Amino acid sequence: METRKPARKRETEDRRQEGLTSGVEGFNDRARRAIADEQLHDSVELFTHKSVAGRNAVLDALPEAPELRERAYRIKQETMANLDRYLEQMAGAVEARGGNVFFATDGEDVVRYIGDLARNRDAKVITKSKSMATEEIELNRRLEEDYADLDLEIVETDLGEWIAQLAGDTPSHIVGPILHMNRERITEVLSRTAGEELPPDVEALGSFARKRLREKFLTADIGITGANFGVAETGTVATVTNEGNARLVTSVPPVHVVVMGIEKLVPRFEDLSVFVRLLARSGTGQKLTVYTNFITGPRQTGELDGAEEFHLILMDNGRSKLLGTEFEEALYCIRCGACLNVCPVYRQTGGHAYGSTYSGPIGAVITPLLKGNDEAKDLPHASSLCGACWEACPVGIPLHDLLLKLRNQQVEEGLAGKAQEIAFKGFESTMKRPVLYNISSKAGRLAQEPLKKNGSVRPLPGPLSAWTDSREMPPLAGKSFRQLWKEGI
Amino acid sequence: MPARAEFLASIRHRTQAGRYKPTNAPDVAWTREGETPESEPIEDPPARFIEELEALGGHGKRVESQQQAREYVLELATDRDAKLLVRWDVDELEALDVDAPLGEAGVEVVVWRDLTDFREVAGKADIGLSTAAWAIAETGTLVLEGGPGMGRTVTLLPPTYVAVVPVDRILQTVPEAIGKYAGGEGGGLPANVCFHTGPSRSGDIEMSLFVGMHGPGDVHVILVG
Question: What contacts A484, CB < 8 A, 6 or more positions away?
């Protein structure tokens, strides 16, 4: 990457309107800008490299890891096949414990429910722990706009999410929301909030955040969390955080609202022993997340803390469309971020290039599925189809396969260009057979020789030029990614 | 049809009418090329618990008697220059009999019962003291149940947190601990169960470790027996 331009000044425009609700077109342009940003590249490199190393070490030390992965896949398969029954069971269990359950078809339903609840409770301050589901529906912005008269103060409490919120930015990674910001930028954002110059060291910045957010935790009227898992059998909602913010958000305010995607269900409490172990290892390289917290309904008689009122919102927002289709496995995702960390595209562009709440391979799959193909048609192409995502996935989602199916769908819908049509017909049949892939990539290494020039490949001839027109096509590497991955990168 | 029934009917329709059945179960990718490491039984669970907890930056100590546990808590309170300690209202901590000595040392003790505003107490305390339902050796985890007398915020708001746990409550593994709550309907579960593993932390700033993010950064577990 010696041709990379010098670091540009970071963008400061408001990016909050880039959930799933707003447009995501334009991956190529955003990716080009991202790749030119040296500081961004360093930040993404630091995060993904450390994350992959941590994950590999802790999974290698777990003898039953392959079996757990298999079980996780089977459990999710069973869950989706009987999702209506498990949803009903979970709702019943929560209600039996005195909680409220609401089925939300889309983000609009969620915004209405929470907005009306805030109005009825005369709420002023809402604390939130990191939730991709609420990012996806741009809950904060919509509550602030649609319920402007309530003058709500909505505070993200995960350190990274809070800093992103203060900066008017969106998370760029499922697990590391502000990995794209370096310490100087973070110091700038927090100093502005503090009204004084803070020293650029982690101790000072963290202590300031602890103090400021502590006030919010203690005065909040409503706490909102997502759910890492929901247990049908018991009505339990599991949240995992290292900071402890989800535990605070659910323990201090009198009202707790959970916004949970319907695919987060697992049938039985014991299934959690499969998923919490895989999630902690795959997401952050830990054996267990510091606060792995299980909430079953509101506080019980005699308890002094914990929410008195418990609301579970089960949100569809396009997910059920995938059931019974060739894309169903995309619903198995537990949002660990492992596929982002290993993805050669994500590692070059970071998360914002995807223009969606969900980035990386899983984002390239579910964004078009949830939003519609024509609005996010670039994303299934933001992949080298190397399959590293699938290998890393703790639930075994065949992400590369789903990306191909999406491209195929685009061809069928007439969304793709002629070149892609030709290319992918061949690519798909090759990718499905590893032996052919190995042979063809070796052949490609030889075939490209006449086209190689200054470290990148010259425009391809004929109908294939559409491919190189929108891409800097690097020559195939001396060693394939599959080979490097086997060698531990 | 009411909204919920309609919602569920639509999902039922999709799962039943859908022709696609996922078949791409995980395969070769996670199959080990080398030798599969053996899952070894943990020989000395209390020692392993302490080892794991300390690797995370927590402090663990095994003591033989209540007397020694009491001394640890007293020393900790003095060392941290504590003014206020809040503790669970449970038999185990009555037996510890630490309230009076703490009082003599100038540390006010508030027991988790009949509080008009729990935030005032837990939010101001320098130390939180509890026991735990279980401890997990392989991860250095405390399993904390919420309930009357067992405040969630006692273990969460004070900057220093100490748990006194009888040694016979140590389990080997996470699945074993989850098994203690599995297999029933929700009726028997406490409203809150928390698997608490080491000090609160964040890596959000350049992946540098910041300890004591929102929960306690100073975590002590005394294993008694």
Answer: none
Q: Quick one: pLDDT band at residue A415, thresholds 50, 70, 90? A: confident
What HEC string does A35-49 produce? Answer: HCCHHHHHHHHHHHH
Q: A352 in helix, strand or coil?
A: helix
- Nearest chain B residue to A105 by CA distance is B7
Give yes or no for a contact between A401 and A390, defined as CB atoms under 8 angstroms apart: yes
| Mean pLDDT computed over A434-441 | 56
Contact A299 B146 (CB under 8 A): yes
Distance CA(A266)–CA(A22), nearest Å, equals: 30
Q: How far is CA A35 from CA A6, A347, B78, in A?
A: 11, 10, 55
Residue-wise pLDDT tens digits, A124-159? 999 999 999 999 999 999 999 999 999 999 999 999
Query: A275 to each of A401, B114, B175, B177, how far by Cα in Å?
Result: 23, 38, 11, 14
List the beta bridge partners of residue B84: B108
Strands A222-225 and A265-266: what pairing? unpaired
Pairing of strands B201-202, B210-211: antiparallel
Q: Does residue B23 surpass a pLDDT of 90? A: no
Tokens of A333: 């995702």
Question: Which ranges in A270-349 belong to alpha helices (H)?
Answer: 272-284, 338-342, 346-349
Distance from CA of B35 to the nearest CA of A (A): 10
| pLDDT, position A379 | 93
Structural contact between residues A371 and A377, judged by C-beta atoms closer than 8 angstroms: no
Q: Residues of B with CB below 8 A from A272's CB?
A: 178, 182
Question: Which amino acid, one-letter code, is at A317?
Answer: N
3-state SS track over chain B: CCHHHHHHHHHHHHHHHCCCCCCCCCCHHHCCCCCCCCCCCCCCHHHHHHHHHHHCCCEEEEECCHHHHHHHHHHHHHHCCCCEEEECCCHHHHHHCCHHHHHHCCCEEEECCCCCCHHHHHHHCCEEEECCCEEECCCCEEEEECECCECCHHHCCCCEEEEEEEHHHEECCHHHHHHCCCCCCHHHCCCEEEEECCCCEECCCCCCCEECCCCCCEEEEEEEC
Q: What is the percent of chain A with per-residue pLDDT over 70, rounded to a whole number?
A: 80
Q: Give the side-chain half-sphere CA count within 13 A for A369.
A: 27
Q: Compute the Cα dihedral for A275, A277, A282, A283 and give only its sign.
A: positive
User: Nearest residue on chain B to A295, judged by CA atoms?
Assistant: B192
Mutate: best of B21, B173, B205, partner A, most A CBs <10 A? B205
Euclidean distance between CA atoms A129 and A105, whole angstroms: 22
